[in-house]
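Technical annex B. To support the medicinal chemistry partners, we prepared a structural model of the target in complex with cytidine-5'-monophosphate, based solely on the information shown next.
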Amino acid sequence: MKKLLVQARAKINLGLEITGKRTDGYHDLETIFQEIELADRLELSLGGSEIFLEVDDRSLPADESNLAWRAAELFLRETPFYSGARIKLWKKIPRGAGLGGGSSDAAGVLKGLNRLAGGLLSTETLMKLAAGLGSDVPFFIKGGTAYATGRGEILEFLPVRGWRQDVIIVKPEASLSTEIMYRSLKIELTSRLENIRMLRRELLANSFLDLGRYLFNRFEKTADSLCPETGIIKQRLLESGCGAALLCGSGSAVFGLAGSLEDARRISDNWKRRGETVFVTKICS
Ligand code: C5P
């Protein structure tokens, strides 16, 4: 059976504003998704008559409640020539962190199985299947940088080139559930949509120096009240020399933009000495 190795990369949100609550239970938002190098690894093969999923992290489900499994199920439903798939998943992206790990795994399964099937499904079809799995799964089908609206599935991919940015990610022990974060969110009267639009404009112009000024995440206050460590980590990242820092998605991880790889390593070593979960990674552009 032919095997394919796939990297399922994480994302951060450079900007995220909620614009309203919808009648379908979701929220409308405007956000900038940014792929980063931190990644899970998938080994995929097509064949047999069942779906097998193996995950190295025993705290994660290895059945149909795992989004990677559901992605395989959806793919097999669309492609009558195949009725089984085998997935091995090595986790590196922490969960409950706002880094989109589960969503990226699901997108990786869709893309990988499609490659093994000789590109049977178009990217558009993969994006549609992805949207049925979760709001940020479609982004991971293409990755890179994207301005997203709707519930996160309406995407404008931005042709960002040459942004060499080192990133530090700190994950507190506590995790945050996306669903609970949305439920706990208080819609505010003041909007910071201008930040998201400025980020989009700067990125389209391939102008990265001022990006830190516009970083914004509506979830920060809520995260701070449910997990005060998020605010403390952000403050410490700024004090230790990061040019900017922000909550990742709906939390609980926080990222910082470092001036150089040496800076990133120095800052991360300090966190590691305190026994914290920290990653040094890079923006993908
Ligand atoms: O789409 P996904 O399954 O990743 O979303 C998880 C939960 O987060 C949803 O069930 C919903 O409660 C909330 N959500 C939301 N608005 C969005 C995205 C997610 O309310 N735009």
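Notes passed to the chemistry partners:
Residues 26-27, 29, 134-135, 151-152, 178-179, 182 surround cytidine-5'-monophosphate (CB under 6 Å).
The chain has a mean pLDDT of 96.
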